[in-house]
Write a structure and sequence with these properties.
about 210 residues, alpha+beta, 60s Ribosomal Protein L30, Chain: A, six-stranded mixed sheet, about 35% helix, about 15% strand, binds zinc ion
Length: about 210
């Protein structure tokens, strides 16, 4: 046993010191950047793996909510995402939220609560400010316009309307529209608890 441990340690030392060690790389996302894409879209695609409408909706909701409670992100924000995020493509929304708020599964400051209505609660853990963000009908309609690819042959997969097998161009088109839309067209923000300074209700334009 001791000898095994000694051998393992030798191997580990070798792995750290040898020039021919494996090259560490991040996975390559299914995403071709467009010149007009904001930088954060590329970062999100690297995290999520493709440019999808639901992930992009999560990005915009996260940015709006974090701003509403004036949180810097990562460590001063708690996010509770209510909604039917059981599986992709809808659950991709949670990845967008993680990227744009810095509240993550790993840090335990992002939580999902299953429900029919999409409502995301943001709390600034330092100031106590709380806001809820809901999606406008316009955004919900854009997300509902995603057409699942007809399942043909034996290669049918549950996430045909999600990943690279989905109708790529149309998905990316919808995602880019969401990425570049006016915030008031995408979300409705309601201040629940005022942190300093107080925030009034914003947005509200569903049409
Ligand atoms: Zn996705």
């Amino acid at each position: 046993m001791k000898r095994c441990a000694f051998t393992a340690m030798l191997c580990l030392t070798a792995a750290f010191t040898h020039a021919g060690e494996p090259v560490n790389q991040l996975p390559k996302p299914e995403y071709s950047p467009d010149a007009a894409d904001p930088a954060w879209l590329s970062y999100a695609a690297q995290f999520h793996g493709h440019l999808g409408p639901w992930a992009t909706a999560g990005l915009r909701v996260g940015m709006a909510g974090r701003r509403a409670v004036e949180a810097k992100g990562y460590f001063d924000v708690k996010v509770v995402a209510g909604g039917p995020f059981i599986k992709p493509p809808r659950s991709c929304f949670l990845d967008g939220l993680q990227v744009s708020t810095g509240a993550t599964l790993g840090k335990r400051n992002l939580k999902w609560v299953n429900g029919d209505e999409i409502v995301v609660r943001f709390e600034n853990t330092k100031s106590g400010a709380v806001a809820e963000v809901r999606l406008t009908d316009r955004l919900l309609n854009a997300l509902a316009s995603i057409k699942p690819k007809p399942k043909t042959g034996g290669a049918a997969r549950g996430d045909r309307d999600h990943g690279p097998d989905a109708e790529h161009v149309s998905l990316e088109d919808i995602a880019r529209k969401i990425a570049n839309a006016r915030e008031a067209d995408l979300v409705r923000i309601t201040a629940i608890e005022d942190g300093p300074p107080a925030k009034a209700e914003q947005g509200g334009s569903d049409n």
